[in-house]
Structure formats: structure tokens, C-alpha cells
Amino acid sequence: MNAPDQLRLLAVHAHPDDESSKGAATMAKYVAEGARVLVATCTGGERGSVLNPALDRPEVWERLPQIRTEEMARAREILGVEQEWLGFVDSGLPEGDPLPPLPEGCFALVPVEEAAAPLVALIRRFKPQVVTTYDERGGYPHPDHIKTHDISVHAFEAAGDPDRYPELGEPWQPSKLYFHMSFTKPRMVATHEAMLARGLESPYAEWLAGWDDSKDISHRVTTRVPCGEYFELRDAALIAHATQVDPTGRWFACPLELQREVWPTEDYELARSLVDSTVPEDDLFAGVRSGVPVP
What we know:
The chain is α/β, with parallel strands linked by helices. Helix content is 34%, strand content 15%. It has eleven helices and seven strands. It has helices at 18-21, 24-32, 58-62, 64-79, 112-115, 117-126, 143-158, 185-197, 205-209, 231-240, 256-262; strands at 8-13, 36-43, 82-88, 130-133, 176-180, 223-226, 265-273. Helix 6 packs across helix 7. The longest helix has 16 residues, at 64-79. It starts with 7 loop residues before the first strand and ends in a 22-residue tail after the last strand.
């Protein structure tokens, strides 16, 4: 099995906009360095909401699936990444007590073996050394995020096995699997305190007041990728998902220069590695760069 001729990163996400809120600056950094970066989007976000008050209008709701596709096209152009749809249908975020059943045929209800098949095929075709996705909790408990984790782990193991999915192309085994560690308590505290110290109103006070320390996973961070110079691209890509983010909201409340000073990295957990790399790391491609020239 020959190695690809350059570094390749596959980022697996549940919905359009997830790629811009989790790991976007990292992807932009590697694109700028000459790597190929491909986003696999599991669903079309068909059952999402309109979260930008300025666009909460009937004509937007009527065209929401098409609009989200158009937003994804703009975001991937901003980040310089490639992108493919895996073709599943958004499960929606069930609310209520008890929770209502998930819609028939949605992504979260597709068996893992079946749902992972298009991702296995994509891995074998794209040949990434590195795959990123969510942790076992989905980052937050959206059923599509949890299913994205499940199929990513499954596909990471299956893609290199010639006895599994033999109809989906020649086997390819990625070298490293990472989970996003985006919203850890240390990051929130550092940002919150830095804003207060500068006389700014922090949008994180309520969030931190309700933080459940028993669920904090900051101790699992193994890898911090310096990418502060790409925060503008990250924010521009997220704003391109205009139905999904309020440009005047909490996400953009902290000045970029403060973010670069306080927390200029995007953070990950190295969940699986088939190469030698020492943690803590500052590079998702640590251990795989040797012999893989970046043009």
C-alpha cells in the first residue's frame, strides 16, 4: 500500500456549520501549508433551526435545506477545504420529557455498519493519514453527533481491513484518529477572566456558573494546534452559515487579539495512533510527516 503524495486530513462532521465551529482554524492552517483537507458532512442539516434572528422568516424556513447547502459551499471556499456529503438525513434535536422518538429513516437510526459504509469508501478513496471527529458524547448530546462519532471510529478501524467492506475499494488505514476538545473549562475560564481583566463584559459567566465539573474532559487533551492567525478565516466561515449563527452573539463576543493571547490553539484528544508520536503534541501530523512531502 503506497502512502499518498502529501499530507491529507479528513474531518468528519454531522451537519453543515459544524466544520466551521470545530477545528476550522486547524484546517485552514494545514491548507495554507499545502495539505489536502476534506470535510465529510454526514447530513444536510434538514431538520436544523434558524438560529439567526435576522433570518427567522417564513421564506427562509421554506428553503432551509437548500440554503444550508449554499452556506456550506461558501464556508468551504473560505477555508480552502474540499467537502463531500455522505447523504444521510438530519435527525433533529429531540426535546421534551420524555423525549419524542426520532424520525423514521434519520441518520441516528441507521445501523452503524450501514451508516459507516460511505465513510469507509471515502477514506479508501481519499487516503487520509489523519481523521478528526467528535468524542463519544458527540461534543454535545445531539443524536447525529453521537452517530458521527460511532461511524468515524468504526470506519477508522474498518477501512484498512481487506475483509471488511471488500466492495468499497482498496483498503487504506489512517494513522491517527482525533477527537475535538473544543469547549473545555480551562479555556472558558481563561477567556472569561481575560475579558473581565480588560473591562469587557464576558458572555461566559452564566455558562461557567452552570458548569458540571464531573463532565469536564480537559484532562483528555493531548494535542494543541497553534492556529491563532487563522481565527479570522474560522469566524468568516462560521458567519457564512448565516442561518445558523447570530453574528452579534456570544460566539463572536471575545476580540480575536485577546483569543490569540489567551488561547491561540485548537485542542484535540489523540484517540488512536498507529505511529510513534509523543504527547503532548502541537501537530496532528506528528509521527506521519516523515516521507510525506508537502508541496
